[in-house]
Amino acid sequence: MAAGKPSVSIKDLSLNFGNVQVLQALNLDIAEGEFLVLLGPSGCGKSTLLNCIAGLLDISDGQIFINGKNVTWEEPKDRGIGMVFQSYALYPQMTVEGNLSFGLKTAGLPKDEIAKRIARASEILQIEPLLKRKPSALSGGQRQRVAIGRALVRDVDVFLFDEPLSNLDAKLRSELRVEIKRLHQRLANTMIYVTHDQIEALTLADRIAVMKGGVIQQLDAPQAIYNRPVNRFVADFLGSPSMNFISGQLEGGEKPHFKADGVSVPLDRYAFDKSSAATGACIFGIRPEHIAHGEQAAALPFSREIEVEIIEPMGSDMLVWTKLGGSNLTFRAEAEKPLKVGDRVIVGFDPARASLFDAPTGNRI
Predict the structure, then answer these.
(1) What are the ABC transporter domain coordinates in residue numbering (predicted)?
(2) N or C: which end of the chain has fewer CB within 10 A?
């Protein structure tokens, strides 16, 4: 996404709960109209950061700006944000229309303006037929649409989503993911979205901020993070199935190699400064979809015959488990050309598509 003026700016933000440091001097600029996803495992600080932006938590240090205004100590209602939570938090005694209009009535908006906003949100989210129903008569997906609609009628510039799809089944999650993407394309509002689901992150985001221990590990476009993870944690967290990791030694020089338990991988196509490549313990990473097998594999810069150990049918394809360099290795194979446990096949890959990580630090080499 092209850089625009910052819609949300976070400056040196820290948050402590007693002696526990939850967020550590975070700096983050989110462009106007950008869809930013905060991604990470449970306890990494992503929802806490979102709640700080929303004003639901008082920060320990730093500043928060929304559309150029310092809102660090503003009340949530005065920040110009709309928030959608993991729980729908709908009023059960009210109709859908009542839930959508409640906040607007409290704010003292005229009746015709309320009706106009409800009609617009209902049309965008395709919930017009549900307006007279109560939440108990709605499905989970319909309730979440209403929850999104309640944020939408506020007519704000910034929307915050805190794992809004995690309570839904897989099919509904997929459907609503598409609806949220359509919503962003139509409105072009700034959206900050928290999830631990990498599929949501990869499909929705303009940029992803991968978090761990209250620190942003990497901030970049989804494909850039996927192809060039900054450290082993990011590489392991993003991808399903995960990246393959093989522990071994990097032998530097003009013709660097990675060596591990009978395997020697030439790294002359790997993107680093060969002359300065240091020798030492490292971890070689390659994604399952970047590994070929059979005739294709034999023509690649690195290939090796292996034995099939486990097969996991996935419908459209299959995951094949084997070993390389003393470590587990998975790759994808076509379902139409089934392999069997015990088969010996050639696997291969281009080291230019691999990732090398320093073993002690986990950082990308």
Answers:
(1) 8-238
(2) N
Beta strands 35-39 and 207-212 are parallel
DSSP 8-state class, residue 300: S
CB 299 within 8 A of CB 282: no
Burial class of residue 8, CB neighbours in 10 A (0-12, 13-18, 19+): buried
Which H, E and C letters describe 251-299, residue by residue? ECCCCCEEEECCEEEECCCCCCCHHHCCCEEEEEEECHHHCEECHHHHC
Architecture of the domain defined by 241-358: Beta Barrel (2.40)
- Count of Cβ atoms closer than 10 Å to residue 309 Cβ: 13
Dihedral sign of CA atoms 131, 110, 91, 52 in order:
positive
306-356 pLDDT tens trace: 999 999 998 888 999 999 999 999 999 988 877 899 999 999 999 999 999
* Ranges for all domains in the chain classified under CATH 3.40.50.300: 6-236
Assigned architecture for domain 6-236: 3-Layer(aba) Sandwich (3.40)
Query: Would the pTM of this model clear 0.70, i.e. be above it?
Result: yes
Boundaries of CATH 2.40.50.140 in the chain? 241-358
